[in-house]
Structure formats: C-alpha cells, structure tokens
Amino acid sequence: MSKIISLHSFRGGTGKSNLTANLAVTAASGGRRVGIIDTDIQSPGVHVLFGLNEGTIAHSLNDYLWGRCNIEDTACDVGAGKVDLNLDGGRLFLIPSSLNAGDIARVLREGYDPGRLNDGIRQLLSRLNLDVLFIDTHPGVNEETLLSIAISDALVIILRPDQQDYQGTAVTVDLARRLEVPDLVLVVNKVLPLFETGAVRDQAEKTFGAPVAGVLPLCDEMVQLASGGIFCRHYPDHPFTKGVQQIARRLLG
Amino acid sequence: MADHNDDLNKLVGSMKALASPFRAFLQDLHARYRPLREGVVASYIPELAKADPDAFGISVVTVDGQIFEVGDFENLFTIQSISKPFVYGMALEDHGREHTLAKVGVEPTGDAFNSLIKLDERSKRPHNPMVNAGAIATADLIHGADPTARLQRVLAGFRRYAGRDIYVDMGVFLSERTTGHRNRAIAHLLLNFGMLEDRLTETLDLYFQQCSLLINSHDLAVMGATLANNGVNPLTGERAVEPRYIKDLLSVMYSCGMYDFSGEWGYQVGLPAKSGVGGGILAVVPGQLGIGVFSPPLDPRGNSVRGIAVCTELSQHFGLHVFEGGGTRPDLYQALTARPQRRGSPTVA
Q: Which helix (DSSP H) or strand (DSSP E) does residue A33 occupy?
C-alpha cells in the first residue's frame, strides 16, 4: 500500500522543508522507494537540501503542470550515487518546483489546473512504484495545500511554540478535519532546550485535539548546516535525528 | 457566518471532488472511448457538418454542486433536440398540465428522429413533446407579447437551468430556418387541425432558435443536475422549474428521449435522458446528478455513439438504472465523495 503524506505549516519558517527531507531520507534508508514532491510553487526550497539548483534541474513540476512533459520526467533520482545519504537499498526521488523567476511569475499570473496536479501525483505513485510520497506544501491555505490534504493518507502539521503558529494551526486542523484526512499528527519544531518536552506536547495536544508525533529541538547545529545537507546524516545521534526517526515510525510503522 | 461556512464547504467540496477516484474513472472512460470511430456527424445543414468528429467531452455534476469533467467539455455545440424537455417544462408552467396535455400527448412513437408527422387519429395531438411535431406544438404554448418576448422568456429559462447566459447560434438558426421544410410542413398540418395558434412563422422561428442554442457538455450536466435536484440549479441555488413538473419532464425523457432507441435505452441504461443531433446527450440520475456527454458522430438513430457508450457504462458500472434491485440502488454520490483507495504497491526489500 503506497502512502501519501503531506507536510504543512500555516506560516513559513517552521522548518517544514527540512523536516520533509529528513523524514524522506529516514524512510528511504529502511529500503523503501520514496518520493518528495515540492508543491510550494511560489517559494520552492526542498531541492536545496539535496544540492540541486536551477542548473541541475532538467524538468520541474511546472513543466508537467503546463503539459510540457510527463510527471516521471521531472523526478530527480537524488539518492543515486550519494554514499553519504546511506539509503541502504532504498530509493529517493525529488520532484522539484521551478526556480526560474519567469516560471514562478507564470504560475502566479495564470494559475494551473489543480486536477492535473492530482493526476500527476497518482501517476507518480504508480510509475515510480513508490512506497511513500511526501508532499512539501506551500505555507498557509491555498488550492494545492487543500488538494494535498484531500488526497493524503496522513497530514503532518508543523508548528513552533509561538502564538502566531498556534492560531494558524487551528485553521489548518479545522480544514484537515473537514477534508477527512485519516491520520493527522502535529510536530512541534524549534523548541528551546529550556522548555520541557512533555509539557509542550501536552499543551499542543490539548489545544488542537490531535496527537503530537514529535517535539524537535531548536539547535545550533541546524543553523550551522544552513540547509547545506541532510541533518540526520550529519548528526546521526542528535536528539533532532532521534525525533525524526520517531515521527517516521509513527507515520510508516 | 452562514455564508462563510457555505464558501468553506464549497471549497472543501471542490477539493474532495478533485481528489475523488471518480475523476480517474472518468478519465479512463474518456481514454477508452476516444478511439471509437463509429458513426457520422449530422449533415442535414452545413453548419452541423462542420463539427469535429474527434471532439469528446464528459461532464458530471452532482446535486450538491460537485463537478467532474474530462476532455472537450468546454466545446460549444447546438443543443438541438435536448432543448425539447426544457421548453416542455416552460409550457407546463405557462399552461398547467391539463391544457398542455390537450395539445401534446405523452405517448412514445418508436419513430425515427426525422420521421414525418404522425398525429393521434382522434385528438389530432402530436404523440409527445420529444418528436418534432410535439416540440413545435410545445413551442407554440410559450407565452409572450411578441416573438422577442417569447424568445427572451425561453432564453431566461435556459439561463436558470445552465447558470449562465445562453445564446442562439445565428448561423445554425438561419440555416435551420432556410432548410426546415419538413418542420414547416408539420407546422402547417398542426395549424390545419387547429393545434397551433395563428402565429406559425413566429412559433417556427422560436422552435428553430431553441434548437440553435449554444451549450457544452458542462452546461448539459448542470441542466441535468438541476432536474435531478428537483428543479433547483445546484451551482447557483436558483429555481429553474416548479418541482411539481419535474416528474412530467423526466417521464417523457425516459419514455421518448432517445428517439426510436428509447425502449432499449430505458431497458439497458434506465435513466431519463435526451439526445440531440448536435452530438449531445443529457442524462439524469434523480436525486443524485446530471450527466452531459458531447461527441458529434451519430448512430443511424441520431444518437451520439460515444455518448451512448459512456452513459451505458456509467449506468452499468455504478448500477444507476432507476429500477435497479428494488430500491437497493447503490448511491453513486457515495462513490464520488469516497476518499481515494490506492492499490498496494510492492515494497522493495
């Protein structure tokens, strides 16, 4: 059974793309075939964690949405030849959004058919024979976010211990319930070490009535890495890495 | 507050529709029947012969306003005979059931779409409002001070059904009027028997105009969904026809809507429907949804070949026949809004 997991946060800067990449690498290292699709068309970012840039992306999700290529043509095999990712037989594909300013402008101006995005995601699952597909969504509420939630088997909502995040998260949780997502979990990210993990977890669960799959620390190492790689591989014994593994187990069994 | 919730529910509903496995089902259906190269495009007037035989659109609209569509669902074509049940509804509203029945019967004829006139021996009524004689007699019943007022009333009616302004294709109208000798003959015979008011030319023009309305498969599905929704357009919330006449429209569509294929259609597909020689077919699943299909090539009986195939498969796959299983008819709506179920893909060890 292939699984679609969306990662969402109401506001930007929650560490959503970083968590997506780390979860995907963790999932793939169990021998799974994993995909990441960057539906954050307005502000793509997850490709950076795998060392891709405008020059190394041949086809983007934008090309597919505009009918220029098939969805599988956009998939970058980001695990291939990457010894440091240590995927141990797993495979990892990334479907990036375009970094071209003109492409981003065109999406903003003309939009696209969200139905085609849905079709592409389904084709991706079957044509790449994926076990798991992670969807890195645009922050806030827009069409591709709602569609992603509507088709997901699980939704991970990321928030920081911050009042703005708390209020916004309530909106996303409400929408996810209306869209009847089967599995809804929260991840509290960037928690200062002086906070007590258990108390943060309890407060979030009480506020939103949804389980917390992980509480991840704010750490200097992450800032130093500056999206220059996959944190879990650089710091395999770090509490953040342990937390990601715990979330992966909760989502994938 | 209620309005906000409405907007939210609409947005959530549209996303559910996008995510629904029914979308993939329609796409598969469209892909499978696209290569079907049977039938010929209607050619009795040059305007119809220009239709692209490859154009093919399927639209489904539910009574709560969800829209599923695939292919050339925006391609405009002329409504032709699919206008007949709707104008019949307008005539019923103008005159009531008794007077309308005195002018047009509800008996299937088994005649071809282009058959010559056949009137009831005793009453001199056309047999039903779906054959040309009956449709001309029905158009004659539409109230209005002058031809323009009558046309405006008909256009306003179609606007309520479709939820947008509907226009007459002038080329098709003029062409129908120039070459419509058979319909003119029918009208004269009706006039001879006192079944038409003494405004034959005007009524014929109105009839040619109602047949020349430009619509697409999306409009047909919305109009069908309006009938399925007891007369209220599910997208605009506007009432298009009085609820007490819904059963009149659906009954004549069920028994007479598919020309001389109506009996077999009722047996195989089991849905009230109407076809037109422009390539459209409209079918109604009462209480659930409307279906609109557009594909110009017609079979010898004047029904769209792909349209028949699509409706037949939809009906049989989802068990939509109105007499299915003594009330155990599965609810297609449930299938439409179900969350997607994906088949397992093998895990790589």
A: strand A33-38
